[in-house]
Amino acid sequence: MGALDEVHLDVELENGVKLGCIELGFEEEPETVAIKDAVKVLLHGLGEDINREGLRKTPLRVAKALREGTRGYRQTVKEIVQGALFPEAGLDNGVGHAGGAGGLVIVRDLDLFSYCESCLLPFQVKCHVGYVPSGQRVVGLSKLSRVADVFAKRLQDPQRLADEVCSALHHGIKPAGVAVILQCFHIHFPNLEPVFLDSNHQGWVKVLVSSGSGVFENDNAEMWGDFLSLLKFKGINAEKACRRDSSNQCWCPSQSSSSEKTSSKNGAANPGMVTAVASILRSLGEDPLRKELLATPCRFVKWLLNFQNNNLEMKLNGFACGGMDLLKPNGEVTPNEKQIHSELNLSFWSQCEHHLLPFHGVVHVGYFCTGGLNPIGKSLLQSIVHFYGCKLQVQERLTRQIAETVSSLLGGDVIVVVEANHTCMISRGIEKIGSSTATIAVLGRFSTDPAARSMFLQSIPNTYTTGG
User: Fold this and answer.
1) Which positions of the chain have pLDDT values less than 50?
2) What is the reported pTM?
């Protein structure tokens, strides 16, 4: 049946549901005030000035985002399910036929968002849920999504999320069985350096999990075949979904052996920052002493310190401003032999200074290079991107800073395009999962030559995808 025991479910089903927008007076609520105070401690620990423009309202924004992203603690499933049960023709004693169309009802591709309980970083979920009606009873299809969202909006790991959704629907609908499959995508953690040093490095951890009840209780049940076949119609291959008894208990990369080695090299996390994160957990309705959460504050602080306001080295490899070190050995330059050079898909990770949530993507750089100059190296450009990315940032500023630095090296004719996926677009009320943002900065000839801009923009491959 899953991880959610019947006693817990009875409480969930009896207490009703509290839905809707954040109440008036949100800023004055004790939980909000506590989170705001904790965020100020985190910003100080990063060496930031909390009164600078861009950070003044960050504590409140973070409080809103976290409370919105964990609103499932303040919701239950009773009214969602029981208020949407409808009679439908079927067998009185046994498995119904859902209007004569067949015994299985599936809703596919539900986009969910949750926070990993191991590190407090966000992860995205593609949820597929189905059930076999019984007792002449079906449920409104949108309610399957709403029930899944209640449990997603809590600190989670993938398997427990699948089990809780499955158990809640089984108890609420009383069907012949419920099946849940989740495709989960966790951002890289905690050391960002491999993302830049290894072009084959995977920046996402992906896991496929499942949970079943009733006729789906047995992993080899025939009904699973129908469920998986209907998913294949959408190009989803879920044959390798992990089961509840899978030995793969640890999915969060913060608990991998490599990340533990990285953490030990970085030393102990700032105690004040760790205490502040524990305070945030309490304010969200969690118990920081729950065994799964004991190390969470420390892990989150170590992630955050990737973006500390310090003098991270920009490895310019000896290149001087103005491009003089790029000249050929004989120093000859032919001014009229300029051509466009480009470096595409430079990876970056950053942290939104408005919400303290990650954003990530790729940077494309174009520039005119005179015939007597050698094109700038990819490693140098990646170093520049890494330097400006590993700070509390906004995408517009990141784009401008990269363009200005590259321009100082090459003499002015530069175009930079940044494509990014922002966690803050999906962690709050708007929840625009799958959205992406593009920004552009143009300097020198690119600002006055539409043909040159167009030529570069058309060279950007249509391969960037958001999320996992």
Assistant:
1) 1-4, 6-7, 9, 13-23, 91, 99-101, 190, 196-197, 199, 245-247, 257, 262-265, 320-335
2) 0.81
How far, in Å, CA of 55 to CA of 45, rounded?
14
- Kindly report, residue by residue over 425-444, the tens digit of the pLDDT: 766 555 666 678 999 999 99
Amino acid at 371: G
Give the span between the Cα atoms of 59 and 78, in whole angstroms: 34
Q: Taking the domain 6-307, which CATH number applies?
A: 3.30.1130.10
Which segments of 41-119 are extended strands (E)? 85-87, 105-116
> DSSP string covering 135-156, please?
TTEEE-HHHHHHHHHHHHSSEE
Q: What does the domain layout of the chain look like in residue ranges?
A: 6-307, 321-459
Element housing 212 (H / E): strand 204-214
Same fold, 6-307 and 321-459: yes
Give 177-216 pLDDT, tens digit per residue.
999 999 998 887 645 555 544 545 556 788 999 999 999 9
Q: Which CATH class is domain 321-459?
A: alpha beta
* Token code pair at residue 79: 């009214």
CB 283 within 8 A of CB 275: no
Contact 326, 319 (CB under 8 A): yes
In angstroms, the CA 423 to CA 246 distance is 29
Q: Which residues belong to the active site?
A: 352-355, 395, 422, 424
